[in-house]
Structures are given as C-alpha cells and as structure tokens.
C-alpha cells in the first residue's frame, strides 16, 4: 500500500463523507491532512484569517443544513477560530472544527505553538473530541459528524496531535464508520393537546424560529397556517420558512420591526412557539402577554421553560409536529371553524401591521443627505427583489436597520451573526453563499466598523472569483456604541467610538475589485446596478447619517445589565 499515515485516514474519511470544502489556513500541524486532500474531490478553501474560515463553514452549514468543515493549525490557529465556534454554538450551526496540536511526545516541552486547547473550547461546542489513536481517526470523524447533527445541530471540535497524524496505522485495526440519523419522533398525545388549546384560544400566534428551518418545516408550517387561519411570524434562521409575502405571515417577530410584531406579541392569548429560544430578542419572554397560554415545541429539551413558565412543553422535531397538527385539524374537521374564530384577530394584526409600516415610511423614503440608514435598507430591499437573492447583514445598527426592512421570500436566503452579535461575520458569510450558489445574486450590507475586522476577505473573494456585492453603511463611527453612550451619558466617548472617513471602495479597487462611492439616496440603486453588472467583487461605500439612532441602540442603553 502507498504511504499510509493518520493524515491519510483523516483525508479519506472526509472524502468518503462527500465533503466538498474544507475552510482553512494552512499550518504545519495539519499538513499531514492537507497532503492527502490535494487533488481530490475536497477543495481546501483558504481564507486570510482562521476566524473567517470558521465563519465560512458556519454559513455553509446554515445554508445547507448539513455539517461543514473548518480546519486550523495549533496554538494561534486554534485561538483565532474560537470566535467563529462561539457564534456557531448560538446559531446551532453544525460546524466541525478539526484542529492540529503539538505531538503527544512534545507535551510540556515548550514546543512551537504549544497550548492546552481542549478545555478552552469545551464550553463553546456541543461536543469536544480528542483522538490519540491513529487507527481510530475514521471513528472519531464519524463521531464528529454524528454529534453535529443529532438532535439540535451544533458545532463539534476534533483535535488530533500532529504525531498521531504522522503515525503509521495497523490497518487490521482500522474500522470505517458511517452513521446516519433518520428517526424523527412526534408526541401524538401532545399534538392533540396543542389542538385542544388552539380551539380554546381567540387570539393565537405562531412564531417559528431556527428549528423550523433546520427541520425543513416550511411546507408544513404554511399548510397548517392556511388550514387554521392563525397569524404567523418568524425569527432568526426561521425567517422565510413561511414567506413574508404570505397573507397570514406578518414577517419578523422582532418587536422593533415596523409592522405588527409588538401588537401581536403583547396581545396574543396563546403563543405556539416553534423551534425558537426565549432570548434577549423576546425580552427574555417578557414581551408576551403574561396571561397568554404558552406552548413551546423544541428538539432540545433544555430550551423548554427557559426564561418563562410554559403551559405545554413538547420535545419534538418541528416538521413532524406540524404535520401531525395538520392531520388532527383535518381529522376533527375544524379548519373552517378555527379560521372564522380567529378572523377578527387576524384583522387586528393586519391593521397593526399597516399602522406600524406607515410610521416608518417617512424614514424609508427620506430624501436628502446624509442618507438615512433606513432609506439605504429600503433601497437594498427593493433592488434585491428576486426570490433567490441572498442578503446578509453585519454590524450593530446596520443589522438592526436591515432587520427592520428586509422582506424574506424564501428560507435560507438571509445571513447574520444573530444572538452572538459578532462583528466580522459578513464578508466570510457571503463568500460562502456565493461559493455555494454561484448563479444567485449575493449582497452584504455592513457597518464601517464591522468591515475593518475581516477586510482582507475581499481579497479571498477576488482571488476565488466570487462576485459578491458589499454595501458599507458608513457613519464614520462605532455607531451603536456611540449612540447608546449618548443616551446613557449625554455624549459619546470619542476615543472609543470615532473611526473617521475611510474610502473602503478605493481599497477594494486596489485589490482588483469594483468600487463606488455614494452620498445621495438617488444614487444608491444605480450603484447597485453597476456593481452587479461589473461581475467583480464589489464595494459600495455609502455615507449614512451618523446622528440617526436605531431602536437597537436605545435597547442597548436601557436594557437589563447594561443600564447603571
């Protein structure tokens, strides 16, 4: 047999799994795997920072709902990857991080890039694995994939010392593993109880979160809403599982979004909470009517009852639960009755939706300079109007403005850091999206603070011929922090919040991309048209009003532990 070492076992296990990309930066401790991935079906996709490699893997995992692989070298390569793994934990992304580490024989000898890695990352991941036996490498890679996808998806860490990767295995002891998890149980008795409670309600609300997306529950959710006439909203990766354009979908459940969310959340007498978590975005459950019946369905038992008592908690896959709920409604022949029963409530929600949008309309349509950030968000939303357009958001205020505006027509076509609130996610995210979907239009709107973190991922895009379009909302500030300080202290602390004017578009032009500079709202759309027409990696630098304060900044200044 040709050269057989642990690195080859690892590479062959990834190839056999059908892995298309390994997002990585090369290093000595992982070269034994690189050696056997070269010229195979697996492409080593090199970024300019390990954080970006993990962000790309996270985005790929979220878009495909399948495990994605990142690989980093020991020590600083590992520590650079930590932020991305922490973000993957809160986004439930099935990212597998394979990390090298100094050899077992070199522990405590102060070898190059030596550190104890496992206890650092354990709190950040769903499972942390270490393989010290060369013959068991395929088994451990199978374990990593299995743990990433069983139950609630999440990140997994696999550490392999470099001398184990270079070791020669006894092939008689090597076993090939390939586990697949297909079982999805549903509690039929609990489903019947849910329908019982719905029959008693007058103002029910369905909220579908990331669990609905990972379960591919969009068709079942839409069918159930149509059978019962219950208004629905979505959150996080669940955005779009029922389109915002559906007459019974009232867009995002985020209360600061112009529309019906605040009224629906506070007035509903029953909430059917599907695959979401009661986080800050729901004011830790306090946004809902305290007297409302609360039904929580989640694949992960630990989420049920977090931050709020529930009247009925059900551990279930969202897709099969919704299918069972629909079956029961049909069996009882109560669909028409429920639709009539909830008709007045739907009209209340619809009126609130119209009123909320009317209040925001002057900002969405604001003329003059500097450009209102909501006007920028609306211009992007209007331009990116194809069902398969992908729009990502990165930044503090910038993400808020986009979340207040974006119309979701399809699931899996929106990317943002989400609950981890991590800046720098955006460019790697859209690079992954464009890599996965080369024929779709992919756009990122990002704050000028955020764009500085992983700026050289523009070069990654250019080098790999990924014609993404990045719109920088440039207020020359760390805007959310400056505005929250202004609210709390009466002024922003300049030394920590002022960035100054930077022509980011010229930097991208110098790297070989397309650049445009925009100061007037009427010039936004022509710049977008030119950027996409260029066929290049593009940066549109848009000067937005630095004095406009977002609802997110207000919340940051006044909510919970942030308030003195």
Q: How does this structure look, described?
A:
The protein has three domains: 6-173, Thiamin diphosphate (ThDP)-binding fold, Pyr/PP domains (Rossmann fold, 3-Layer(aba) Sandwich), CATH 3.40.50; 188-355, Rossmann fold, CATH 3.40.50; 365-562, 3-Layer(aba) Sandwich (Rossmann fold), CATH 3.40.50. With 564 residues, it is α/β, with parallel strands linked by helices. The radius of gyration is 25 Å and the shape is globular. Strand 17 (514-518), helix 23 and strand 18 form a beta-alpha-beta unit. The strands form three sheets. It has a six-stranded parallel sheet, with helices on both faces.
Topology summary:
Elements: H1 6-16, E1 21-24, H2 31-37, E2 43-46, H3 50-64, E3 68-72, H4 76-80, H5 82-91, E4 95-101, H6 118-121, E5 127-130, H7 137-149, E6 156-161, H8 162-166, H9 188-200, E7 204-208, H10 210-214, H11 218-228, E8 232-234, E9 249-252, H12 261-267, E10 270-274, E11 293-298, E12 312-315, H13 318-332, H14 335-341, H15 343-364, H16 373-383, E13 390-394, H17 397-403, E14 414-416, H18 426-436, E15 442-447, H19 457-463, E16 469-474, H20 479-489, H21 494-497, H22 504-511, E17 514-518, H23 524-534, E18 538-543, H24 551-558
Parallel strand pairs: 1-2, 1-3, 3-4, 4-6, 5-6, 7-8, 7-10, 8-9, 10-11, 11-12, 13-14, 13-15, 15-16, 16-18, 17-18
Helix pairs in contact: 1-2, 1-7, 3-5, 3-18, 9-13, 11-13, 20-24
Overview features:
564 residues; alpha/beta; Rossmann fold; 6-stranded parallel β-sheet
Helix fraction? 40-55%
- The figure for the number of domains is 3
Return Rg in Å: 25 Å
Strand tally: 18
CATH fold-level assignment of the largest domain: Rossmann fold
| Percent of residues in beta strands | 15-25%
Low-confidence runs of at least 5 consecutive residues: none
CATH 2nd-level architecture of the largest domain? 3-Layer(aba) Sandwich
Bulk shape: globular
* Overall average pLDDT: 95
Output the CATH class name of the largest domain.
Answer: Alpha Beta
Describe the main β-sheet briefly. Answer: 6 strands, parallel
Strands of the widest sheet, in order across it, are 2-1-3-4-6-5
Tell me the name of the CATH homologous superfamily of the largest domain.
Thiamin diphosphate (ThDP)-binding fold, Pyr/PP domains
Which structural class fits the helix and strand makeup?
alpha/beta
Q: How many H/I helical runs?
A: 24
* Distance between the first and last residues' Cα: 68 Å
